[in-house]
Amino acid sequence: MTKSIHPFQKFAENMLHKDSRYLPEILALMINKDQGQLLVSLPGTPQEMSEKLNRPISDIEQDLKDMFRKGLAFKKVKNDSVYWRAPAHLVQFHDASLTWPEATQEFYTAWHLYMEEEWPKLAPLLTQLLPRPVTRVIPVGKSIDTGKVKVLSPENVREIIDLSSKLAVTNCTCRLSMRQCDAPLEVCLQVNRGAEYTIERGSGREISKSEAYDIIEKAENSGLVHVTMNKADVGTFICNCCGCCCQSFTLLISDGLALCDPSRFIPQIDTEVCTACEACVERCWFNAIQIKDGHASVLEDKCLGCGQCAVGCPESAIQLVEKRSPDFIPE
Q1: Is 137 helix (H, G, I), strand (E, B) or coil?
Q2: 238-279 tens-digit pLDDT
């Protein structure tokens, strides 16, 4: 007889991490076994889940509502029916569940342990499965001479905000769990569909465009890096990431994993103006700037083109220039 798999372990397997110790522990802090069975039985409508699991539809609907708030169930209305699905992959599970409003410190700690001990084992597999990273760096607008370079809409955070129909803000999921720095926490912008989801869940709050600009300014001044979806449209989020907590940046820095694409730009240093003060070295999360021959120089293979070096230069000796063509950004 085949031994049945506990639904929490089955979910870990669905997240491509069947041997995980911590993913089942994380689920156990969120839901009960019946909800776990519902989770691994999705997708479907409440009626379909009721019939499949032989449970009253009212109980199914209540569980789905609870799991929606916890970031474990996602819904879509189609032909007047509500279809539900589980997280599509580990990153979605991470980002959705960590903004669960009632999350406990024990829950955050379990995620912290997972990200420290098990995520580094899964991340290389994900980079092999994906043709391109799902996220991309957006440069700080003030770091580019827009009179010389054309900046596209999907690489301009303020234009993304301008073009949005709805905005919300959540806490940074990575800093919530990793706690490696004191950078601002409530800086993860949700755009359009992302904002609608956030507001309905109660995992963040709706904000105006004016407040969104203020959040972007605060993030830039704090040395955080803008990151968005790696495609040529407005997308659903603008994260503001540090190099010590971010699930992508930490392994990109330590192991060189291609978990986030660079921007199309790279710093150009005016060696006549540079005083080798090392302000740019200190601001660079990616160890992409060094002092050599009496001035700063860029290690292009490490640079993500975020522009933090340029905005932090007291001599205005750095400016981003175009390195990659517009078709670098996937359609």
Answers
A1: strand
A2: 999 999 999 999 999 999 999 999 999 999 999 999 999 999
With contact defined as beta carbons under 8 Å apart, do 305 and 263 qualify?
Answer: yes
Distance (Å, whole) CA 61 – CA 68: 10
Question: What proportion of the chain, given as a percentage, has pLDDT over 90?
Answer: 90
Where are the domains positioned within the chain?
A: 7-128, 130-328
- What confidence category does residue 149 fall into, taking pLDDT thresholds of 50, 70 and 90? low
Q: How many CB atoms lie within 10 A of CB 15?
A: 20
Is 63:78 a contact under the CB 8 Å cutoff? Answer: no
> Is 127 in contact with 259 (CB distance < 8 Å)?
yes
Q: Give the C-alpha distances (Å, rounded to integers) separating 25 from 142, 190, 261.
A: 44, 28, 32
Cα-flanking dihedrals φ and ψ of residue 315, to 5°?
-100, 0
Rounded-to-10 torsion of CA 127, 172, 120, 258: 30
Cβ–Cβ < 8 Å for 266, 319: no
- pLDDT of residue 206 exceeding 80, the answer is yes
User: Is the pLDDT reported for residue 15 higher than 90?
Assistant: yes
Strand partners, 237: 190
Largest CA-CA distance found in the chain, in angstroms, rounded: 76
In three-state form (DSSP H/G/I as H, E/B as E, the rest C), the secondary structure along 23-74 is HHHHHHCCCCHHHHHHHHHCCECHHHHHHHHCCCHHHHHHHHHHHHHCCCCE
Report domain 130-328's class: alpha beta
Single pTM value for the model = 0.93
Task: Dump pLDDT digits (tens) for 57-110.
Answer: 999 999 999 999 999 999 999 888 999 999 999 999 999 999 999 999 999 999
β strands within 71-187, DSSP E: 74-78, 81-85, 135-138, 167-170
- When the candidates are 3.30.1330.30, 3.30.428.10, 1.10.760.10, 1.10.10.10, the CATH number that belongs to 7-128 is 1.10.10.10
